[in-house]
Amino acid sequence: MKHRLLFTGKKLIRMALLLLGVSLVAFLLMSASPLDPLKTNVGQAALGSMSQEQIAKLEDYWGVNDPPVERYLGWLGDFVRGDMGTSLLYRQPVSQVIGQRLQNSLWLMAFAWVISGVLGLTLGVIAGANRGKLADKLIRGYCWLISSTPAFWLALVLLVVFSVWLGLFPIGLSVPIGADAADVTLTDRLYHAFLPALTLSITGVANIAMHTREKMADIMDRDYVLFARARGESTRSIVLRHGLRNVALPAITLQFASISEIFGGSVLVEQVFSYPGLGQAAVNAGLGSDLPLLLGITVVSAAIVFLGNLMADLLYGVVDPRIRRGAART
Amino acid sequence: MEPILEVRNLSISFTQYGRGTRQVLLPVIRDLSLAVAPGQVVAVVGSSGSGKSLLAHGILGILPYNSHMAGEISFLGQPLTPRRAAAVRGKEIVLVPQGVTYLDPLMKVGPQLRKGRRDQSARTASRAVLERYGLGADTEERYPFELSGGMARRVLIATAAAETPRLVIVDEPTPGLDARAARRVLGHFRELADGGAGVLLITHDLELALTIAHRVAVFYAGETVEEADAADFAAGRLRHPYTRALWDALPQNGFIPISGAQPGPGEVGEGCPFASRCPKGRPECMGPVAYRELDGGLVRCLYPEGGEQP
Ligand code: SF4
After folding, report:
1. Most-buried pick from A175, A230, B63, B207 (CB within 10 A)?
2. Does B127 touch chain A (CB under 8 A)?
3. Can you give the pLDDT at residue A209?
């Protein structure tokens, strides 16, 4: 137990350092951005009709004239105290914007994560256990096709087919247009999240299935599978008793590592479906030079990905007897 | 007595892809014959990496899909077809593999012994068979990584003894064990034979094989080159020059190394594969050499020791 706590502590310290680095990089990129916040947010024409005084006020608001080091340190100081600042675009506290957006995105990502995990694992196990046979070829064909298809393109295709042609699903947004927040039902949310989630799942499945297949095929070549066969176990029993058990560990890693991919995919997919999630907010913040929001989103998403990996590591310790018992004995 | 296992002219080869899409047939076992009688321990002795283990996989019908097997195998007097092999493996024919890597690393010993059965009688049986090999009840709760080398070996033997095998195939039982543990492990196989089963012991270690084997088949470059009674060795009644060389290479017999290397699969021509290293080789040895009976054993040599020219 003590061992595990120490391990977690170390990981958390590493996470803090990582987040610091990530935020710094995001800040530097933003500072180096050629986009002029005034021109992109206020507009060339509007700027022309403004007085010098007004422009100075705006420049102040967007922090154009502050020295970068001061800006970053200022942000960092607030952040450590738990204040993520105020979004310049949305004129709301960053934490509030992220909270709302994250809630929308979580629906999407959780759905895609579970579907791609379960389906990817199943397909991968089937393909790996039947290496070289028809099932394997079909599954691999699907994986190759999907991995060579850009996510946003797939999103467009689904959108055109299901929403435009068939009219089965909404074209965009996360709730019905003009609906009161109180009236929005769970069904509404699922209905709106369906296509974006489907897009994310389809691409996620391919990735997980492909990797699981490799692991499974590797397991089927192991000595213990040969011995199980020599002892008269059927292929079915070998897959269920030995295959699944041994593929579980790499599957956990894959599953949690896929969080970051789903996160990345959601940025593009949300854009296509105009789904007001975290990914879309990130794009807006980046293009609109909304520094506090962008830094906030960067840090929060990095933290989520990192926590996912930490969870995988901790689960490993629970599932793998070599770690669980090995650690218990020292 | 009718032999439990009879293998005649067995060959096993692999299809491999050569340059481009050209397929190459790689013969690993070319001509292997032997017989195992009830109560008998027959050792197949050959150097490491010569493909002896494939014999075990061939008998059990678990060769990889890119392999081809030809020749005859009969078990209890009936041809051992793939279907029959699938029905008897793990029951009447059992394998004792080399080491702990043949156990599922994430499954406790108990469930592995019971092959998925959960009933009380299976539990009693697994407990009993572990006890038979001096392993306590706590062994069932251990994972393979928690077993010592000797314990792992005994667990593997227990998997065989848990069935009622007629034929036990043992693949390299001693590597990694000290001399005492190795003798003890071999003793267990002798017990199984004394119980009436046939034991086929596949090993590179002639010396250890001789401590329990009744008969020894010597394997060289994909062929059995001699089959002899274990007693023939001590009595100096050896037939094939390679067997002689193996015997002389043992520490107590002078430690005389054999020069040269064994030809690999696909490197053997028509003649005697030992010709390049044989002190008695003659031009005729480049022609076909038959496996024939001699003096109570079998030999594949034109000019064997103690045999006249054919
Ligand atoms: S056949 Fe000839 S080369 Fe081969 S072992 Fe006998 S004597 Fe030597």
Report:
1. A230
2. no
3. 92
